[in-house]
Amino acid sequence: MASSLTKDSAEPLGYEKTFLGHPRGLATLFMTEMWERFSYYGMRALLVLYLVSGGVDAATGSQGGGLAMTAATATAIYSVYVSMVYLMAMPGGWFGDRVWGARKTVAIAASVIMLGHVSLAIPGQAMFFVGLALVAVGSGLLKANISTMVGHLYKGADDPRRDGGFTLFYIGINLGAFFAPLVIGTVGEKINWHLGFALAAIGMGLGLAVFLIFSKTLNPKSSEVPNPLSAAERKAVITKVAVGAVLIAAFYGAVVAMGMYTLNWAMVPITLAGLIIPVAVLARIKRDKDLDSSEKSRVTGYIWFFVAAAIFWMIYDQGGSTLSLFADAKTADTIFGLGFPATWYQSLNPLFVMALAPVFAWLWLWLARKNQEPNTIVKFAMGLVLVGASFFVFIVPMNMAGDGTKVSPMWLVTIYMIQTIGELCLSPVGLSVTTKMAPKKYASQMMGVWFLAVTAGDCTTGLLSIAGVDLNGTGIIAMQATLAVAAGFAIYMYRKKVQGLMGSVH
Questions:
Q1: Based on the number of CB atoms within 10 Å of its own CB, is 130 exposed (0-12), middle (13-18) or buried (19 or more)?
Q2: What is the pTM of this model?
Q3: Which of 166, 184, 298, 499 could form a disulfide with 437 if both were Cys (CB 3.0 to 4.6 A apart)?
């Protein structure tokens, strides 16, 4: 899973080492993030299954009570939702830097997320989409600021505890993501969908309570607004937002009045925006006249990594849609005689991350000592080839299930493991290379740009689904696998060119 945003802190702190040798505030942020991820991944595990429940694409004998949508529509909604979470990370960071400060933004974001899950717990399609929008907005606001607050706990980039602190924080992310499908997924899928969504609201409520009760353990710097808006800037922003809201309301009001409104009227503009905004942001940075030649060269080189990451996430994030639907309808729900819900497959990725991340950290260090560690470009190529290979493997059980046969769960276990290995090759390295290649002027913003690669990848999936492409067919799965592998070989074959653009960055 994609990691959270990070920023450096310039203020030293003297907090007592009371949480595994780290500032006490780390425990507060660890628990807040763990419960937020518990709510997010629990709801995400239910999302696609709930959307198809009661419809033609639901598994035989599955619980009713969902929205009876087709697999294509469910995949499109899921993809747009995930892309919006990452797209909102950029304005979320802006609110933290210029309006509320990181601490207030996180408190507001957690409240919005909780209200979103409460809305999902109320039956009805209208409340469902309201809830989905609230969770997406809140998650984006929180994602952009909570990791910034982790950075505030330390004495700056040179604090020897800093990397260990972020490692512990990342464990919190994966603990929440691991337990969520086992708890929320089981209750939602086997007892009642809306009760599952209610549990997600309770999880976020617990995270918010921890954050508010123990907020005194956080650095006071987290309450500051680093670059507050001037009165003129605030007035301009409010005016632009108000005008935009009026225009959008007028447009959709006219569409509804003419009886033309369908779900695509909402999804298509959002999906197109998710593709256009990342391109526009990169183009604006590249054209900035304040950048020197070496910085512009690094931005050009970074585009290679951005496109590669977008292709990677396009496939990887289908673990919660295409693979989830296959798990529900075409995979046996027992292993060694023990039955389990389809949502449990969503716990495999965080489980593999926690198990394999220390192995990869050791492996890179061991290879580095022998002067044989692959460089960033090669690691990216490995990640792309692996995620493509996972979909080539996926074709086998898809063909086996063509006659109605339920395939072994081990097929999906294998696919998720291959994808996680690919993630560990690409995602941490992508965060690192982003900080290294960012122009000084855009040091913080470039972390938001990295997450826009997730938005671009998921919006591509969403657009394909909206266009009627069957993402659950072997043909499109093979095409995506081929694209990823080809992209991996392309970036490897042009590695000298990309390295030249990167300059001194390795």
A1: middle
A2: 0.89
A3: 298
